[in-house]
Amino acid sequence: MQNTQVKLIKRPSIKITSDIFEISKEETPQLTEGQFLVKQTHMSLDPAMRGWMEPDTTSYIPPVELGAVMRSSGVGEVVESSNSDFPVGTMVAGMFGWQQFTVCDAKSARAMPPGLSAEAILSVLALPGITAYQGLFNVIEPKSGETIAISGAAGSVGSLVGQMAKVEGLRVIGFAGSDDKCAWLKEIGFDEAINYHSENLDQLLASAAPDGIDCYFENTGGAVQHAVFNQMNAFGRIAVCGMIGDYNTDKPSAGPNWINIIKKRLKIQGFTMPDHQAEWPNMAQKMGAYLMQGQIQYRTHIIDGLENAIEGINLLFSGGNKGKLIVKL
Question: Kind and range of the H or E element at 163?
Fold first, then answer.
């Protein structure tokens, strides 16, 4: 059985271009005892992939090696099995990479509950959901009555953070890159939504948060970071999840002056999910409870065809995606 794969063959210079990838076909290997063959049906595209393409060996996760299949999470179906715990037909999720088929064992894939769509799994139970949960509850530690600001709020992580914060009794302010995205944030319960392209961000935020900002979930950097940082309350907490505004530049934007960290006794913490891998199943279960109780919504942006992931991933950095970016194989 032939397996179509997309391999990383060059490091990106600044932006992700098609020449850094190579499409190849290889035969799927024979299974050994305990293994099973997964046919991937849906593949997640995430901003973190830009960092995984870099050669930096000091980062939180090793870089994708040149000549290797590009790293990604996905959902698929077991089509051949030598593992009685994963019979043919089982829906599974795992880090399957940019390929049609992958050989797994019990450590590299986990069975998914019946009745859940692949879109729901990748949007809520997989990396976006557990990232949102970790950053909100274990880094920020929100308290009812506080105000939280979220950059990249219409993205797969930010939208979940905002909805969970509302359930916890917070006032929620989201920043997004278009009026359409801001309208959607209001539809799913955000108290205020601000287009970050607006010229008067400071005034808009002051109006939206008359009592200041207690919590900030940072996904983008840029002008939003400065506006929120300047309006943080004493003992505010900032979870730094991503800096997507700087991923495709050769000169990162300047950050705020740190004097407010001292004056306002701010807590600022970066986090990455590989550090918490043992807790993923528990966090996914909690995210599933929010979903089943109708407390969170999601929307997806589907790309058809594995080969179209090569150009499609750039939608994450141009803001062209409307919802969780997923490739349907």
Answer: helix 156-167
Res. 14: pLDDT tops 90: no
Within a domain: residue 289? Answer: no
pLDDT of residue 84: 96
Residue 309: name the closest of 290, 329, 293, 294 by CA: 329
Q: Within a 10 A sphere around the Cβ of 106, how many other Cβ atoms? A: 13
Strand order of the β-sheet with 267-270 is 192-195, 171-176, 147-150, 213-218, 232-240, 267-270
Same domain, 92 and 34: yes
Q: How far apart are CA 72 and CA 69, in angstroms?
A: 9
Single out the residue of 303, 308, 301, 310 nearest to residue 327, CA to CA.
303
> Do 41 and 146 belong to one domain?
no
Task: Decide: pTM greater than 0.90.
Answer: yes
Number of domains in the chain: 2
* Domain coverage including residue 224: 128-274
